[in-house]
Write a structure and sequence with these properties.
Elements (H helix, E strand, L loop, with lengths): L1 E5 L9 E4 L9 E10 L2 H8 L8 E2 L3 E9 L11 E5 L8 E5 L4 E2 L6 H21 L7 E4 L5 H12 L3 E5 L3 H9 L4 E3 L4 H8 L5 E6 L6 H6 L1 E9 L21 E3 L10 H17 L6 E5 L4 H9 L6 E4 L2
Parallel strand pairs: 9-10, 9-12, 10-11, 12-13, 13-14, 15-16
Antiparallel strand pairs: 1-2, 1-4, 3-5, 3-7, 3-16, 5-6, 6-8
The chain binds NADP nicotinamide-adenine-dinucleotide phosphate.
NADP nicotinamide-adenine-dinucleotide phosphate binds next to helix 1, helix 2, helix 3 and helix 8.
């Protein structure tokens, strides 16, 4: 089977497609046929060594497809079932091993591609809007990079929950995408504080969802109302430099830096969040904007689009 492999950390040139023996499931594992696998910043952090992994490694952290086989019996699943998974390494391949207790059933009404595109970012958008900062009707929220994969889901969900989104994005085209998803205002990054003041009568936003990191952190803090929440969930522009907690005293702000794995660690939590997410997709509450599909051989092009700020919405590899 073919897989996207890297043997050392580096830029996209370290990625290559390799023929390898099909993996063999051990106890508690499923062998899955990968029909689609999402392109994520997590994979960039792993490839560049920001997140350390055992090398050589197969890239890719999420996907959806069909169960091929198990080692022994696994309760609740059978070969041929449509499934999705997330935060499982080795997903940019024709076949992958997934612990059976990490498999999520894909219901009717959700395509395999939608499931692959939604599972990592959709579950993230779920916990960010329900746990990291639980959005209530009337809340004003700043969402950075609002035309991106995470940004579009957050804008839709915050709006669905009754919140109002002030969005940032780098180009007029991306800002139009943010407004189409429900943002009350979409502005360039440099205009974020003015827009926040205007839409909150000078008060500041209740929360900021910041996946950009280094370049937006100061703006995010400055945009908060007293006792507001800064949810820093990524670093697409780079890591935020060391930070003096005393800065939070300016408004008794809350700062959290969450990661998906802690919000789906228990199987019941993984299943409950997935059921809600797939329900939203089946009911049309959440539209997953798949904007690019790439074969394994074009993996570097997919990551060039993501890292180069060319993409909006979700990119998929189709093994
Ligand atoms: N903590 C978690 O559980 C979790 C889970 C999933 C994703 N994430 C994080 O969420 C963030 C967004 O991920 P995504 O996959 O949805 O990506 P994305 O938002 O589709 O793409 C990144 C966007 O960030 C903006 N950006 C600003 N400065 C940038 C720079 N210097 N280089 C590249 N992009 C820059 C760009 O939008 P503009 O052109 O509009 O500026 C770009 O399109 C990432 O930081 C990722 O790590 C976190």
């Amino acid at each position: 089977m073919r897989a996207v492999v890297f043997e050392e950390y580096g830029d996209r040139s370290v990625l290559h497609v390799q023929d390898r023996p099909a993996p063999v499931p051990g106890p508690g594992q499923a062998l899955v046929l990968v029909e689609a696998s999402g392109v994520n910043f997590m994979d960039v952090y792993q490839r560049t060594g920001t997140y350390q992994v055992a090398l050589p490694a197969v890239l890719g952290s999420e996907g959806a497809g069909t169960v091929l086989s198990f080692a022994g019996d696994v309760e609740g699943f059978a070969p041929g079932d449509r499934v999705a998974w997330t935060t499982i390494p080795g997903s940019h391949a024709e076949q992958a091993l997934v612990p059976a207790d990490r498999l999520v059933p894909v219901p009717e009404g959700v395509s395999t591609e939608q499931a692959a595109a939604a599972i990592l970012q959709g579950l993230t958008a779920h916990y960010l809007t329900h746990d990291s900062f639980a959005v209530r009707p009337g809340d004003a929220v700043l969402v950075h990079a609002a035309a991106g994969g995470m940004g579009q889901l957050l804008t839709r969900l915050v709006t669905h929950l009754g919140g109002r989104v002030v969005a940032t994005a780098s180009t007029p085209e991306k800002r139009a995408v943010a407004e189409a998803n429900g943002a009350v205002a979409a502005v360039p990054y440099g205009d974020a504080l003015d827009a926040v003041r205007e839409f909150t009568d000078g008060r500041g936003v209740d929360a900021v969802y910041d996946g950009v990191g280094k370049d937006t952190f100061d703006t995010s803090l400055a945009a908060l109302r007293p006792r507001g929440s800064l949810v820093l969930f990524g670093a697409s522009s780079g890591k935020v430099p060391p930070f003096d907690p005393l800065r939070l005293m300016a408004g008794s702000y809350s700062l959290t830096r969450p990661t998906l794995a802690h919000f789906i660690a228990a199987r019941h939590e993984l299943l409950e969040r997935s059921e809600t997410l797939f329900g939203w997709i089946a009911d049309g509450v959440l539209d997953i904007p798949i904007t690019g599909r790439y074969p394994l051989d074009a993996v570097a092009d997919a990551y060039a689009a993501l890292e180069g700020r060319e993409s909006t919405g979700k990119l998929l590899l189709i093994p």
